[in-house]
Amino acid sequence: MNPKASLAVLAGAAAIWCASGLLSFSDELHSSPERPGNSGDDPIRKPKDISGRSIKCPRVRAVSAGWDGEEGTTGWLFRNDPWMAYQRGREEFIREFSVADGAFGEAGKMAGQVLEDQTTKMMTRDHVASCTLCHNVPFRDGGAGVTFFKNGGTGRNTTHTFGSGLVESLGWQLRLKILEKGDLNRDGWIAKGEADRVRAIVENLPQDAEGEHVSVDFGAFGDLDGNGKPDLNPICLIHYVDKDGKRVSWARNLTDEGVAGYTIEFQIFGWGHRKGAVASTLRAFSANAYDIHTGLQAFDPILSEEPNHDGLAGTSVAGMPQFISGRTRDRGVVKDERGVSKEDPDRDGVCEEITSGDLDLIEWFQMNHPSPAEKLLTPQRRQGRALMTSIGCTSCHLPDWHLEAGDAANADYTKRYLGDRRFFDLAVTANPATGRLEGRVEMRDPRKREAFRIRGVYSDFAHHDVGPAFHQVQFDGSVLKKFRTAPLWGVGSSAPYGHDGASLDLDEVIRRHGGEADASAKAYAALSEADREAMLAFLRGLVLYSCDDLPCDVDGDGSISPNFIVAGQDTGPERLNPEWLFRVPGRIEGMVTNPDGVKVKSFALTNLMEAYGGKLKWLRDDDGDGFPDARFEAVRK
Ligand code: HEC
Ligand code: HEC
Q1: Structural domains in the chain?
Q2: Percent of the chain residues topping a pLDDT of 90
Q3: Strands 565-566, 452-454: pairing kind
Q4: Ligand 2 mean position to 324 CA, how many Å?
Q5: How far apart are CA 295 and CA 277, in angstroms?
Q6: Which residues line ligand 2 (CB under 6 A)?
């Protein structure tokens, strides 16, 4: 009997509790997307990928713990092996989940958020097996991508998630800066009458900083138009509260019984919705996307518990406060004796499809994901950039934001900024001699929570009505008129454009602007052809790039080596392969003979288990059931 089969017998009881054990024990049933092998392995037992770019790790559910957690838990990885945590999080983003992992389960059903009629569902579900199938350009990174049926029949286009960790932290900062203006007595919420006529005006940069200064007006705190809701910009999702600041979950208006005021969530992600239809944090966004798109439900106390009943859930290991609006469907109310949640909300027989630890990792990947880059600033592009300001585009597409340094202990809660929580920054610049984009890894200490200047994001993160050509008629007939100013970083690589992807090129989407952007759109149309070309050249130069292929100084020696040596092997031109920065660097196989009899360089790893920490206590899964063995040790004994 092979060791897997004997364990399957031992774990027979486990299979009764939760079918995931049963499915994963059998190689026949496991339609695994993994290619852990190299040229020396039997390609049937161990599929290979000589390019080294497929998923390598067998799936094992990660275990969440704080920064002082035990070996192999997520906090331990963040502290001791941040690149491995990043790469494992990336694998969760690009992995095509199989039925054995619990993918799908309610296919064909409509699910999730409802629209304004309170009945029509916002989208279908269970349509793809991986984040990457939508976030596909560039492939293997947090790319932009497809348009699919969502909100309305004209659809929603997939945004890229480059730089999304900076955007997430900025979202929290904007929430605090708005509360600073409206919560005059600092009790954590805004009472009716407390600041009715005050406007929530936020500056993008500190007063003395260089750069283009813009004040963003996020609206008034009171209900001056008498529709029962605060007149804040719709990017602020309202949570109504009672006289003690506790959330009144069913309330929809300031006039509802028991409502004394409200607090806000800053919905920084997505194209724009009228109510809390997309999540405000990367963790909640991921949990929701896994559920809706791939039929994988997360069991995550961090997202699902609301200790003070004030709209805030827990804080993730990576340091992001969560909102209760992101709570997951699997609440873990019923657990088996191994501690595995038995709820299985989609009834496909696989339990705890996504763990808290898995969310830690996919959050870590997206939070640290490099930002978009900018091509060479030629005289033409420089002129185009100047026109962006002079014809008023940057009044909405404002270029830079200052991320304040973290200040968790400030006596004034509205100053408790998060700062920069990333462990590295990838500075990408165009080499003036060759025009080629080159990267430089700059390590950062995530626990220092330093300030950071977010450059060239080109958004005020407010919703605007940019005219009827953008209005979206939703499935239920309600009309969405306001959208988040689309951040323009990466826009040169993310066609088609607009929330619906209906504009196939940049010129078209700019001409489509009207409404609040009418004057600047008209000014654009009236420019000389050369000036318009200059603006388009500027925008085309705001690009995404493939992190795997970007020539990059990863070891900080000031140059990009043509023969970057890792673990004794020549990996070729230096580039950002996270595996080479692991605590135990991945050792590539090197030159092998391919089926054509030709010598090629194999990037498959010969030390996969060691590099990816497959023997660490909380990652080790000898029985291959997809759960680390340590979770069940006590039960097996
Ligand atoms: C079926 C296609 C599809 C899949 C699969 C998908 N996404 Fe998305 N994603 C979208 C679309 C469309 C948007 C824009 C949503 C909107 O505003 O309506 C988006 C937006 C996002 C954003 C917000 C980015 C921003 O700056 O606004 C994040 C973060 C994100 N997705 C993460 C994920 C993760 C993580 C997964 C996998 C667990 C995933 N997505 C799977 C289509 C998809
Ligand atoms: C009043 C605010 C406002 C002004 C002024 C404005 N825009 Fe926009 N812009 C938006 C909004 C909102 C969207 C998103 C529309 C949507 O979601 O469909 C957008 C979308 C875009 C897009 C598409 C981005 C994408 O990823 O799909 C481009 C390009 C763009 N704007 C360029 C410009 C240029 C160039 C100007 C100046 C001529 C300009 N905008 C002026 C608010 C504005």
Answers
A1: 180-266 (no CATH), 373-543 (1.10.760)
A2: 87
A3: unpaired
A4: 31
A5: 18
A6: 271, 391-393, 395-397, 464, 466, 470, 483, 485-486, 488, 491, 494, 497-499, 506, 509-510, 513, 516-517, 520-521, 524, 539
